[in-house]
Specification:
With about 190 residues, the protein is an alpha+beta fold. It has three helices and ten strands. The strands form three sheets. A six-stranded antiparallel β-sheet has the order 6-3-2-1-7-8, with no helix packed on it. It has a two-stranded antiparallel ribbon with strand order 4-5. Strands 9-10 form a two-stranded antiparallel sheet. The termini are far apart.
Length: about 190
């Protein structure tokens, strides 16, 4: 197929005669292309949920590649495509002016290497954790007491699971009682 993606083309037959546009996609097996703003098809899309709204979607449809001519970037004329061998490669050429139609991608110059200090600073800023302060709620004494009771129950459940290790279980129970006693003293003061 002589028309490729990113070529600028003009339509020569069909309902969109004399429209120009950029080739969005090409399908060589089907000999079809999709051009920007050409063969626009409207599709009604039904709302699938209550929040969505029904809408009409406009989308470009494929047209046959034989219905367009490629516009030469050098002479800006619609032209047929010829082939020539340049430097051992087969290249598309304009029949009117002989200019190459294949756009060569310019290689970008490699970026200068950053100094070690700059790299370390970038890494440090990326790795630095962002600390967000959460709003604290004022709690009542009843809520604090309820949470302490829940904590005590959890610690006793954990200690009963370790029933095979008798000594450790007693130590866990003692420490949890000491902690709750200290909290109670702090609240009463």
């Amino acid at each position: 197929m002589k028309v490729k993606k990113n070529d600028t083309v003009v339509v020569i037959t069909g309902k969109d005669v004399k429209k120009t546009g950029k080739v969005i996609a090409s399908m060589p097996k089907l000999n079809k292309i999709i051009v920007e703003g050409v063969n626009v098809q409207e599709k009604n899309r039904k709302a699938r949920t209550a929040q969505e709204t029904s809408q009409k979607i406009k989308k470009e449809g494929p047209i046959d590649a034989s219905n367009v001519l490629v516009i030469c970037p050098k002479c800006d004329k619609a032209t047929r495509v010829a082939y020539a061998i340049v430097d051992g490669k087969k290249v598309r050429v304009c029949k009117k002016c002989g200019a190459s139609l294949d756009v060569k991608e310019e290689k970008k110059a490699p970026a200068k290497k950053a100094s070690k200090k700059a790299v370390k600073e970038e890494v440090a800023t990326e790795e630095a954790p962002v600390v967000e302060k959460k709003a604290t709620k004022k709690s009542t004494k009843k809520a604090e007491v309820a949470t302490e009771e829940v904590v005590e129950k959890k610690t006793t459940k954990k200690s009963t699971k370790k029933a095979t290790e008798g000594e450790e279980v007693k130590e866990v129970k003692k420490t949890s009682k000491k902690k709750t006693a200290k909290k109670d003293d702090a609240e009463n003061a």
